[in-house]
Automatic annotation (TrEMBL):
Pfam families per the UniProt record, alphabetical: Mor
InterPro entries xref list: c-mor_Regulatory_Protein, Homeodomain-like_sf, Mor_transcription_activator, YraL-like
Ranges for domain Mor transcription activator: 43-88
Protein species of origin: Anaerosporobacter mobilis DSM 15930
PANTHER family: MU-LIKE PROPHAGE FLUMU PROTEIN C
Domain of life where this protein originates: Bacteria
Protein name, as recorded: Mor transcription activator family protein
Signal peptide range in chain numbering: none
């Protein structure tokens, strides 16, 4: 999430009203209900992880050892095993 300066985007009267409640503090403004996105959707990171996990599973199915996957992806053995289990359950 990138911070924006309130004085750059809000009308002066709205800024002054907000300053009565939170003067000089951080304020989180949640998304509207209809515009919420799940984690990683906006940045595309969720898809990248999904693609990587599918790649790990495919390599495992083609015979690559877990120890090799650990070295190639810099993940722990438990992470590799979790990814394989998760991807395997998607296939079923």
């Amino acid at each position: 999430m990138k911070y924006k300066k309130a004085q750059d985007i809000l009308p002066k009267h709205v800024l002054e009203l907000l300053q009565e409640y939170v003067d000089g503090e951080y304020l989180y403004i949640p998304l509207k209900n209809n515009s919420k996105k799940s984690w990683g959707e906006k940045s595309g990171f969720k898809k990248e992880l999904s693609d990587r996990n599918r790649e790990i599973y495919n390599k495992y199915q083609r015979g690559m050892a877990i120890s090799q996957l650990i070295g190639e992806y810099y993940l722990t053995e438990s992470s590799i095993r979790r990814i394989i289990r998760s991807e395997k359950s998607r296939d079923n």
